[in-house]
């Protein structure tokens, strides 16, 4: 059985970067670019019209930046997953993007394979953050906040596993549940913890001290 085609809209104002992205994606057979925009406003209209699976957006663009675009996309009915990427990433920008609902945050200096992996992760409801940013972000969580008191032990364990970067299949093996059941539980946790994305829930796991290191 053939793999489902992941439909992507790209929001990128640099023509050379757009060409590079098209070149990377053309090498795989499960992702296709269905639309491209050079600014955030046009990208929003393309998302409304084309209804892609994933929006790949630069952070710094004319008329509307990637963070604001992410917020507006998540206000739409049945929004796509959003993967943000940028040349110069900092921890605050990344956190703001994740809070807005992004499923991942990559740097343009990350290897092309990571961009492809990030698109696939976003499509599957998983999260991916650039390793160049992740280490410094985790150091921020040395002073932990307490998790919400209404989360039971089994829910905290799921949050911990998400924070470790495990996907649903890996979590299902660890907790002896079907992947579909794990997906359902994680979706419920996103609502219960007021997280817009799996990446944001993973950040919460570190913030709450559920993940060592």
Folded structure, characterized:
It is a single chain. The chain has helices spanning 15-26, 40-50, 66-74, 91-100, 112-123, 131-139, 153-163, 168-175, 179-192, 198-207, and strands spanning 6-11, 31-37, 54-58, 81-86, 104-107, 128-129. The mean pLDDT is 87. 38% of the residues are buried. The protein is built from ten helices and six strands; from the N terminus they run E-H-E-H-E-H-E-H-E-H-E-H-H-H-H-H. Helix 1 links the parallel strand 1 (6-11) and strand 2. The chain is globular. The chain has a six-stranded parallel sheet with strand order 2-1-3-4-5-6, with helices on both faces. Helix 2 (40-50) packs parallel to helix 3, helix 7 crosses helix 10 (198-207) and helix 8 crosses helix 9 (179-192). The protein is α/β, with parallel strands linked by helices and 213 residues long.
Rg from alpha-carbon coordinates: 17 Å
| Strand elements, count | 6
Dominant shape = globular
Order of strands across the biggest sheet? 2-1-3-4-5-6
Keywords:
213 residues; alpha/beta; 6-stranded parallel β-sheet; 10 helices; 6 strands; 50% helix
């Amino acid at each position: 059985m053939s793999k489902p085609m992941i439909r992507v809209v790209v929001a990128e104002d640099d023509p050379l970067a757009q060409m590079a992205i098209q070149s990377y994606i053309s090498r795989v057979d499960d992702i296709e670019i269905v639309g491209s925009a050079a600014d955030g406003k046009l990208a929003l209209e393309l998302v409304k019209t084309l209804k892609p699976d994933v929006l790949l957006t630069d952070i710094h663009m004319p008329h509307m930046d990637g963070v604001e675009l992410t917020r507006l996309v998540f206000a739409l009915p049945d929004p796509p997953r959003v993967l943000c990427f940028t040349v110069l990433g900092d921890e605050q920008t990344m956190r703001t993007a994740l809070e807005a609902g992004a499923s991942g945050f990559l740097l343009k200096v990350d290897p092309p394979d990571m961009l492809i992996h990030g698109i696939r992760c976003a499509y599957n409801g998983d999260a991916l953050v650039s390793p160049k940013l992740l280490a410094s972000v985790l150091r921020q969580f040395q002073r932990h906040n307490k998790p919400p008191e209404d989360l039971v032990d089994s829910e905290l364990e799921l949050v911990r596993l998400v924070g470790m970067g495990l996907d649903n299949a890996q979590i299902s093996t660890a907790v002896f549940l079907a992947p579909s059941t794990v997906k359902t539980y994680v979706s419920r946790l996103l609502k219960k913890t007021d997280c817009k994305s799996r990446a944001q829930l993973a950040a919460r796991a570190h913030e709450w001290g559920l993940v060592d290191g």
